[in-house]
UniProtKB/TrEMBL annotation:
Catalysed transformations (reactions): a long-chain fatty acid + ATP + CoA = a long-chain fatty acyl-CoA + AMP + diphosphate
Lineage: superkingdom: Bacteria
Ranges where the Phospholipid/glycerol acyltransferase domain occurs: 660-776
Entries under Gene3D superfamilies matching the protein: 3.30.300.30, ACP-like, N-terminal domain of ligase-like
Origin species: Fusobacterium simiae
Protein name (record): AMP-binding protein
Alphabetized SMART domains for the sequence: PlsC
InterPro entries per record: ACP-like_sf, AMP-bd_C_sf, AMP-binding, AMP-binding_CS, AMP-dep_synth/lig_dom, ANL_N_sf, Plipid/glycerol_acylTrfase
PROSITE patterns with a match to the protein in the record: AMP_BINDING (PS00455)
């Protein structure tokens, strides 16, 4: 079958050189003739994207032989497996890759012909006259093995997927239905052609349709945009990560100004492609001005990106498939885009959703099998010819929706199945601070592993990204999620997740990543200057872990809000540096040290002294009265006596005259009211609570706080000032009531105590009055709108004298006595 013919036009561009179709066919014939490719042999192509890759590829096909396309970034060791397994007769490679080929052959002790395409002088090869007159490239026969491509599995050795020419031709015909390719098209070959998607989509099919291909020798974003403009590119195939990066840059620009933000919202409401193309003409021109549509494949694309690009006047057509299906199973018609779907099933292909929701496929596109591996073939293709994709999905209104990966489903000990992608999508939609998220079972706990968008963190001046994501995002998700889908731990990491070459996250490697088992790139030499060394020593001393020049001060070192306060004071005492949001602006050790070096004032010699900090005067406004708290005490007494049947124990241990710090476990929204109910009126009137300003934004709520001894603070802005306010109250013979966990328990168990209460108690020598709340979590847990009736116990325990204790001893003792008492209540 004739598949490439001379159309008297440009076939491809590379490094500013144009290759016509006549030249392309002649060069292919010259490589075929000079290398003497034999029919029905396997021939490896191992090189970067370049014209010679396609010359070699079509020379192999024209010889009715099989192409074995291998990732050019494979190591020599990896290459040994591919060479040995595929039984290749020849290896086509480039000067850039040939040393790895030689090394692999030495390891194997094999003699295989190596053809270095750079060394073939095409101008000095004469071909037969009859070939020059008949300028066509022929295909293999339909049942011939045209391609062997290796899939990278999570376990075991890669498997060689055997694709017949008819498998590939089935995909060609299916896309012809959608008129995806036209002779006038110009395609940008961006992805490496050892993958079936770019090989077919930007290598084979453009030449079958006599279109034009543009190869990039520089794949930077600048080179990409320049090429799109210079060559008037009409279509590009990319993986989701590419569209995510482009989307972020465009949306950041739009959201930076109120007028563009308004126009975008208006265009979204109008939902007219022609209107959007006029309004956002500059966006289209930024991509060269000739793009008909983009194509996304390799993994699922965030539907919001599809929607936003459409609002900008640009279509993204998403497809779904796998190497074993040549690769397309479904594709989105360019005039009927449905975000979140993987398109319509292509012709000559049948798709069913199995009982366990797995997508299974039968049709002309399904591979012949795995090379020399009938056992693996039988595992994926059943006796009735159905290929089991391993993906989960559903069919609705003729469109296929991919909902997850079967092997990535998390099966809990109680038998419940969790689709992590579903949870990841929900959490990601709640914030713009997440770059990537993986939900996995780690140490038998459902865990969200998050790589933050550090640029957004910096823009929004978030100094404690862990607490922000844990409590403002994940915790809010948990409040609406079923118990078995709740995220019980959050890990924040300062690096990209391990991925395949086309951008799929290697989920099976996440645990190794968290445990530091993945080998990192060799670090550059450590800087050596005074500010860097001094700051590094401080961080090593307080965190007890390795610190590097590129360590993210919060994420990598696990700095909590109080650590940050201490660190800020260290910088102030030693370098005269005092600035808000310093860590969000200069998040790594080296960036911060360079800033300190350039901006330090006259050096101050000193050490962090919490006594000095706490005893500084503050002009913070305190609540004016407690009359609302008193009213609530009497109003809630009816509820607590009947509905909740509250029992108060140990109230005789309460100190009525000396200033005291009350600490308790934090079980529910009721806890503050329970305290008011449980203590004598005289104690209530002189006891103050802390609350975050975010919960008291309205004028009415601020009035309630001011009349109920509630001190409003911003815990993330300046904890030192918060502690000065608490100290001021204690020095005025007032009491303070604190829940050292920070937030209410989400599982009934006590969380780690923060140490601020211990610092104040120690430095002012104020006793701790621990008390335990039992039963409130079971009756009114976080996330529930209404409580249920039952029993609650509030028990005051023996006071803790702090005079001879350290901060850590105060924390440990307070936590232990409350936790042990709570356990006793649960056991009884």
């Amino acid at each position: 079958m004739k598949i490439v013919t001379d159309k008297n036009k440009i076939a491809l561009y590379y490094k500013d050189t144009a290759v016509t179709y006549k030249e392309f066919i002649l060069n292919t014939k010259k490589i075929k003739q000079s290398t003497k490719i034999k029919g029905f042999t396997n021939n490896m192509i191992y090189m970067e994207n370049r014209p010679e890759l396609l010359y070699s590829f079509f020379a192999i096909w024209d010889s009715r032989a099989t192409s074995v396309c291998i990732d050019a970034s494979s190591t020599a060791e990896e290459l040994t497996y591919y060479i040995d397994n595929s039984d290749v007769a020849k290896i086509f490679t480039s000067k850039m890759q040939v040393e790895k080929v030689k090394e692999a052959l030495n390891i194997l002790n094999k003699q295989i012909e190596v053809i270095i395409v750079d060394e073939i002088d095409l101008n000095n090869i004469e071909i037969d006259e009859n070939l020059e007159e008949n300028l066509v490239i022929n295909s293999p026969e339909k049942e011939d093995i045209a391609l062997i491509l290796y899939t990278s599995g999570t376990t075991g050795k890669p498997k060689g997927v055997m694709l017949t020419f008819d498998n590939i031709w089935a995909n060609v015909g299916s896309l012809d239905v959608y008129k995806m390719y036209e002779e006038s098209d110009i395609f940008l070959a961006l992805l490496p052609m050892h993958h079936i998607l770019p090989l077919l989509g930007t290598g084979i099919m453009p030449l079958l349709y006599s279109a034009t291909i543009v190869f990039l020798d520089d794949i930077s974003s600048v080179a990409l945009i320049n090429a799109m403009k210079k060559y008037k590119v009409t279509m590009m195939i990319g993986v989701p990560k590419l569209w995510e990066v482009m989307h972020k840059k465009i949306m950041d620009t739009i959201n930076s100004k109120k007028i563009t933000k308004f126009i975008f919202k208006l265009a979204k409401k109008i939902n007219s492609l022609s209107f959007s193309r006029i309004i956002f003409k500059k966006v289209s021109e930024g991509f060269g001005g000739h793009i008909k549509f983009f194509v996304s494949g390799g993994s699922k694309l965030n539907p919001q990106i599809t929607k936003d690009f459409y609002t900008l006047g640009i279509k993204i057509c998403e497809g779904y498939g796998m190497t074993e299906t040549s690769p397309i199973i479904s594709y989105t018609p360019k005039n009927n885009i449905v975000p979140d779907s993987a398109g319509k099933i292509i012709k000559d292909v049948e798709v069913k959703i199995a009982d366990d929701n797995e997508i299974i496929v039968k049709g002309r596109n399904v591979m012949k099998g795995y090379y020399k591996n009938p056992e693996a073939t039988a595992e994926i293709i059943d006796k009735d010819g159905w290929l089991h994709t391993g993906d989960l999905g559903k069919l609705e209104n003729g469109y296929l929706y991919v909902t997850g990966r079967k092997k990535e489903m998390i099966v809990l000990s109680n038998g419940k199945n969790i689709n992590p992608i579903e949870i990841e999508s929900k959490i990601s939609s709640m914030t713009n601070l997440i770059s990537e998220i993986v939900v996995t079972e780690y140490n038998s706990i459902l865990t969200a592993v998050i790589h933050p968008d550090l640029e957004k963190v910096k823009e929004e001046k978030v100094d404690n990204i862990y607490e922000d994501l844990k409590w403002e995002v994940v915790d809010k998700y948990n409040q609406k999620a079923p118990d078995y889908k709740k995220i019980l731990d959050v890990k924040i990491i300062n690096e990209d997740f391990p991925k395949t070459k086309i951008g799929k996250i290697k989920r099976f490697m996440i645990a190794d990543m968290l445990e530091g088992k993945i080998e990192k790139q060799e670090r550059k030499p450590e800087p050596d200057f005074e500010e860097y060394n001094k700051i590094k020593k401080y961080l090593v001393d307080i965190k007890g872990k390795d610190v590097y020049f590129d360590s993210h001060i919060e994420i990598d070192l696990g700095m909590d809000s109080l650590d940050m306060v201490e660190f800020q004071y260290f910088l102030d005492l030693n370098f005269g540096i005092k600035e808000e949001n310093l860590i969000s602006k200069y998040p790594t050790l080296l960036k911060l040290a360079n800033y300190v070096k350039d901006n330090r004032n006259q050096e101050k010699i000193g050490n962090l002294d919490w006594k000095e900090i706490i005893n500084k005067d503050t002009d913070a406004k305190l609540p004016s009265s407690s009359f609302v708290a008193v009213i609530f005490k009497f109003l809630f007494s009816i509820l607590f006596n009947t509905f909740f049947r509250v029992k108060v124990k140990g109230d005789e241990k309460i100190e009525k005259y000396k200033p005291t710090i009350f600490v308790a476990n934090h079980q529910s929204f009721l806890d503050g009211f329970l305290f008011n109910y449980s203590v004598p009126l005289k104690v209530l009137r002189k006891t103050y609570f802390l609350a975050t300003v975010t919960h008291f934004k309205s004028s009415f709520m601020k009035f309630l706080a001011n009349s109920a001894n509630v001190v409003l603070v911003d815990m993330n802005k300046d904890i030192a000032e918060v502690m000065q306010i608490l100290a001021k109250l204690l020095k005025e013979n007032k009491n303070i009531a604190i829940y050292p966990e920070g937030l209410r328990t989400r599982d009934g168990k006590m969380n780690k105590f923060k140490k601020s209460f211990a610092i104040i108690a120690k430095e002012l020598n104020v006793d701790i009055q621990p008390y335990v709340i039992s039963g409130a979590y079971e009756l009114f847990p976080a996330g529930k709108k209404f409580p249920k009736p039952g029993k609650i116990t509030v028990e005051f325990l023996d006071k803790i004298k702090v005079e001879n204790l350290t901060y850590d001893e105060i924390i440990d003792k307070s936590y232990t006595v409350i936790n042990e008492k709570l356990k006793l209540y649960k056991e009884n």
